[in-house]
Design brief:
Length: 452
């Protein structure tokens, strides 16, 4: 792959191709320079289109030994991993002996350490230019969305890690000669760290970058928050009395329902379009699309709508609450949680970027059809004739971010305090306890009975 270079690379390669000692080789020259990452994209796309098994990235500056290509491919052929990196840092002193400048030697280790910390990886080096990939891996990850710049190599590592594929490392020698380096070191380091932070924020639901939305097959979009104090799951569990009859709408994962049956001896019925919870005595399931009218339900003490209403359009929200109210006029408790679109970080992102950054989960989950503020939730409950008994703001689920213990504990405490003091800005979710308001017909009937 000749990236429109000015040093006759493709002409020299074409001339060598005609020699008796040449391998079967194809020389491609880009019509314009596409950048370091852009050139890799074409090479990988060519390998995928032509049904190659493996592809090797080898920098053309002479720093890496091409004689090691068989050693690079061996783990892929043996099925030990989906990517192999030739690492100069598995034997750090050898890199210095090979002429790596001391400042690059230090910077390589510092930036790799920060990248490992952010991504939860243990690679010895993120910045090698000697790599081998299985083409089946390249078919799975959206590498074409990555940067055309030099930190393409970091972004493809993030995608491989997110796809839960194995990266093998082998030690390699290196040689620094009189080649010209065209990489701006500061810009490159910042690009690598920024990509890692964007990937971390995408996982956390704070920010969304499509190129890092790479999940393994069967991976769930959502996770249980029962173990997090102050989360919607934990609050719902705490507010439901023991031995209650509970109707869980949209709780097909069964996280809260299972805990209620197991720990509070409740009877729980779950209605959802998709049921993933295992069977349990006291836990019953009905497959039902909540966009359709509710089926008949028996005596119920509590109805849960946890993180459900935002997935319905406004008209269906009112209809569903009306159906609950009609079917269960004496319902003691309705529990609702919805995201708070007025959350301060969202306001800041919108102010600076001018966009709503939808993602896999979180406040701006891409499956959400309605955005809630405290006012819009109150308006919905009033229009549906429910009386709000309690409305509180819940803090962000910091415990899901994988932060170190002390930092996670302090952040949870601080954000919880802010959510209590200034819920409009710092609440991540609204948590509501409500009861049906008696209809005029019901009140009139009661008045007649008392008067008689």
């Amino acid at each position: 792959m000749d990236d429109a270079s000015k040093d006759q690379t493709s002409a020299l390669a074409a001339a060598w191709r005609g020699s008796p000692a040449a391998w079967p080789v194809r020389v491609l020259k880009n019509p314009r320079n596409l950048g370091y990452g852009g050139n890799q994209k074409l090479g990988y796309r060519y390998a995928v289109q032509n049904n190659f098994d493996q592809v090797v990235l080898l920098h053309g500056d002479g720093q890496y030994a091409p004689e090691l290509i068989p050693a690079m491919l061996e783990p892929l052929i043996a099925g030990k991993g989906s990517a192999v990196f030739g690492s100069r840092m598995l034997n750090k002193r050898a890199a210095l002996r090979g002429g790596m400048p001391f400042y690059k030697w230090i910077a390589n280790q510092l930036v790799t350490g920060m990248e490992n910390k952010i991504l939860g990886t243990t690679l010895s080096e993120f910045h090698t230019g000697y790599r081998a990939y299985r083409c089946n891996l390249l078919r799975r990850i959206p590498f074409e969305l990555n940067t055309n710049g030099f930190h393409f190599d970091t972004e493809i590592i993030i995608q491989i890690v997110r796809a839960k594929e194995v990266i093998c490392e082998i030690p390699i020698p290196t040689f620094y000669g009189d080649e010209v380096c065209r990489v701006n070191g500061w810009r490159y380091c910042w690009g690598c760290l920024r990509s890692c932070l964007e990937a971390w924020c995408t996982d956390a639901g704070i920010f969304y970058a499509r190129r890092f939305d790479v999940g393994s097959s069967g991976e769930s979009r959502y996770v249980s928050k029962l173990h997090l104090p102050g989360s919607s799951h934990a609050e719902a569990f705490a507010h439901i009395p023991p031995e209650s009859k509970v109707l869980d709408l949209g709780g097909g994962n069964g996280w809260v329902g299972t805990a209620l049956v197991r720990d509070k001896r409740c009877e729980v019925e779950i209605l959802d379009e998709m049921i993933t919870s295992p069977a349990l005595l006291g836990l019953t399931f009905r497959t039902h699309d909540l966009n359709r009218p509710l089926p008949s339900v028996g005596k119920t003490d509590v109805v849960m709508l946890l993180d459900v209403l935002e997935h319905l359009d406004r008209r269906r929200q009112r209809e569903l609450l009306g159906e609950i109210r009609s079917a269960l006029p004496s319902l003691p408790l309705l529990i609702i949680s919805v995201p708070n679109t007025s959350f301060l970080p969202l306001r800041i992102i919108f102010f600076f970027n001018g966009r709503l950054n939808y993602g896999r989960r979180g406040i701006l989950d891409e499956t959400h059809r309605f955005l809630f503020s405290r006012h819009s939730l109150k308006e919905l409950m009033g229009d549906s004739m429910f009386s709000i008994k309690r409305l509180i703001g819940l803090p962000p689920p910091v415990g899901l971010l994988g932060l170190p213990g002390p930092i996670s504990c302090f952040s949870s405490w601080a954000l919880g305090a802010l959510a209590n003091l200034f819920p409009g800005l710092f609440a991540y979710q609204w948590f509501c306890l409500a009861q049906p308001i008696p209809t005029a017909d019901a009140l009139l009937a009661k008045t007649k009975k008392v008067s008689s």
